[in-house]
Amino acid sequence: MLAVGILGGGLAVVTLRNVIHSAVAMMICFGSLAGMYALLGAPIIAAAQVLIYLGAISVLILFAIMLTQAGDASLPAPFHRQAPIAVVIALVVVGLVAWAVVTTNWKAAPTAAVVAIEAIGTLLFTDYALPFEIIGFLLLAAIIGAIFLARRPEEDERAN
Amino acid sequence: MASLQGYLIVSTALFGIGAFGFMARRNAILMLISIELMLNSVNLSLVAFNAFIPGARNAGAIFALIVMAVAAAEATVGLALVIAIIRTRQTPEVDEYDDLKE
Amino acid sequence: MELLIALIPALPLAGFLFTVAVGPFLDHVPAYGHGAADHGVGDHDSASHQPDSHEIVAVAAHDTHAPVDESSFRTVPAEEEQRLTSPHFGHADDLANAEGADGVIPPELADGRGQTGHVVPGAERPRYRSWIVPTALVGLAWVFSMVVFASVIFGGNTYRVTVYEWIVAGDFHVTISFLVDQLTAMLLLVVSTVGFLVHVYSIGYMDGDRGMWRFFAHLNLFMLSMLLLILGDNYLMLYVGWEAVGLCSYALIGFWYKKPSAAGAAKKAFIVNRVGDVGFSLGVMMIWTTLGTLSFTDVFGKIGGQAELTVTIIALLLFAGAVGKSAQFPLHVWLPDAMEGPTPVSALIHAATMVNAGVYMVARSNPIFSHAPVAMFVVACIGIFTAIFAAAIALTQNDIKKVLAYSTVSQLAYMFTGLGVGAWAAAIFHLVSHGFFKGLLFMGSGSVIHGAGGEQDMRFMGGLREKMRWTYLTMVTGSLALAGIPILAGFFSKDEILGETFNRGYGLFYLVGIVTAFMTAFYTFRMIYLTFHGTWRGVAEVWHHVHESAATMVVPLQILAVPTILVGLLLGIPPESGLIHQWLNPVFEHSEHAGIVAGSLAASGEGFSLLGMGGLLLLVGAGVGAAGIWLAYRWYVADPAAPARFVARIPFGLGPGMYAASVNKYYVDDLYQLVFARGGVLLAEALWWFDAKVIDGAVNGAASLAQGIGRGLRRSQTGRVENYGLGMAAGLILVLIVYVVVIR
Q1: Alpha carbon of B102: minimum distance to chain C alpha carbons (Å)
Q2: Average pLDDT over all residues of chain C
Q3: What pLDDT, on a 0 to 100 scale, did the predictor assign at position C597?
Q4: What are the counts of helices (DSSP H) followed by strands (DSSP E) for chain A?
Q5: Has this prediction a pTM greater than 0.90?
Q6: Is residue C162 classed as helix, strand or coil in its secondary structure?
Q7: How confident is the model at residue C577 (pLDDT cuts 50, 70, 90)?
Q8: 3-class secondary structure for C395-439?
Q9: Smallest Cα–Cα separation from B28: which of B92, B88, B97?
Q10: Is the dihedral of CA A88, A91, A95, A96 positive or negative?
Q11: CA distance A116 to A41
Q12: CA distance B55 to chain A (A)
């Protein structure tokens, strides 16, 4: 079921004409994904998914759409001329990877293991401390960059 | 529930959908959304590996968290860029952004 | 003595350098602005006229005002008559003058007098002094040559003088050094004597020509080259002189360079020479590679030990050079055309010196040839064929100089025949005597041309013996010698060659030679009778101006007549063992019995006997010569219609065709023109097409290809991110395929 949600949402995202509708479909997709994480025994990830994607990024995207809408401009053709080729390529990629997936012996355990939250916390501050810090810097840089890029020109003069 | 391979197939399919969306749609913001889809598909496969492969010691989960953070940062900056461009060009159609054309 | 020998070539070198540097300033020629004036009839009578500074050598008959039978005179249109009677005509070259090349000075400026014979106030006389130094230096060289000659021939000395170490490059070692033995001495005699006389002759002949300093400079350069050629003691010096005389011949034949036919003839001479020179240089190189040395004495010492095939090839290659230089078939075509040059040039280069270089070279290389009987036979074959071939052409030529040119080719061929059968000394003897009488004949023809107002076509001459006594007498002397009449030089030398040919068993060659001798006598006296006897057949106005030439031109003729008469008697008696044989014996003694045909009377030890076979051959030779003269008399004096009747009577109607073939030089020139000239042009055009279309096409095509590829590839740069995304995805697929196929 959740898989249906994921894939259906995804398809909806890429095929709907209206961008806002696509954004909403994306949210549905993310939500289904969160559910799937939970099924996989990683509720922390599910929570993070909801918080980050559904809470922040989706909102961000909706804001961006709002800020750049031309009002009630007519909706032009959604797909490129190269869409058919894109379909082919996407299918080929999927096919190849799927084949690779299917034919590999994963030596996997039959059921999902559960992730302990404390374990992740501990790991974040010990084995993976460096990536953790770097991520912090990355986010800082992203914030500064976004602020700078999205400025309006007159603010530029006032800042100078 | 489902086996590892099932989750991976879903992940792959989502990735393909995201790739298709990136290549086929004309709206710049939609392209960014497709990128987010692809990133999520990767996250899904990471968490699936983390769950089914013993001995991973939660590296998959941690990596998934990191990917999420990076995706967020990237979406931020990307959207800022797109907003700037759309403001300049007055159109979100990427077809029109061909100033670097030979 | 060594010093004298080294000076002999140094003198003309100095003369050349001096004249080139200072010559132009020694000739002062005032510029003339007004065009060539019209020259009417009346202002030329025997007193004031001849506006060029010739004097009349008043000998026997001079211009008379007695009535002249003008029925034989030729009529021409008025413009042609004016051209023919213009004093420009034939003096230098009227065409050249018209185009402003070095040419003649209009008469009114030549001596400051105008049309009416009065001195034109303010006009300057031209002043030619550039001839003084070159002629003096050559005269001095002549004196030295005679001293050396005497020392070598009468004193029996041989000299080797080393002047300079020229090339020292590892194994290759060449010096500039001179070898003077009896053979060189004989050549020195001819070259320096005729050379000096030609210089004197040219003073008068080239008078009025603006390019006089150039002429004398080239003459001196030529003397230098020829002397280097004959004095050199190794093949490289011979080659240097060889090439240099070719160059000088080019310069002198094309002396009136603005005349297209002269320029073309000069080119032709040089190019045809060059063809032969390829063989010659290959031969010299082969000598070097086989023997490791180029010095004559060393080469001749070592040649005996080589394989006969090698020696034969060397000999044939060397002979190829002689074929070119001495104008034998098939490289004879340049010599008749070389008559475009001034007559002194023809006399010097093409009668007495340069063309003898080939004969000299073969004679000098006699040890090589004597070890290669096949090569000697080839030499003799080409020689005897060329002899009769050239004689057959000379029979019908109408230009007096062309007759002499073909005669030269034919006589040279006799010399080669002599060399080929092993009669070395006889060939050199003929070289010496021919040098004298042919030089005489050429200079005499120059005098005739000068006197006849520039006309060279014998059909429009006639009756000149009344007005040009000395020229007539000297030319008859030369002609008798050429025809082989006893007492005169040609008789002894030519008949020795024929006799040796017979004695050594070359019967067929002897027959051909006898027939050629008959033809020689015939065409020579045809020339004499057409030119000097009968009545004048030219334009009337020219007849009034005909005069004997100046002293500077006539005196050399008289001087040359002396050896023409005496050389045979002095050097050739008794036949086959006369003085010249004794003198040249040391040079040729080892090759006396060479030749492809073994049996010979001489080899068997029998000498010449007047009452035996030798005397009979002499008689035959003389008889044939006399017969030729008689036939010429009948056909050109007694019964002028006879030749036409004869031609008509030839069976199968071949007569006119044979005549046409002979007049057209048997179409050899046309063949060469077609094959080599047209062929060369066609080849060049084909190659040009190839270069322009194929090579340029490939190069341009490569450029276009690069451009096209670029244009095609550029279309992928759309600037659009979705296209780039597609590209990335395609790359991703490739990676996946690799993974799936290779790794799995």
Answers
A1: 6
A2: 79
A3: 56
A4: 8, 0
A5: no
A6: strand
A7: low
A8: CCCCEHHHHHHHHHHHHHHHHHHHHHHCCHHHHHHHHHHHHHHHH
A9: B92
A10: positive
A11: 9
A12: 10
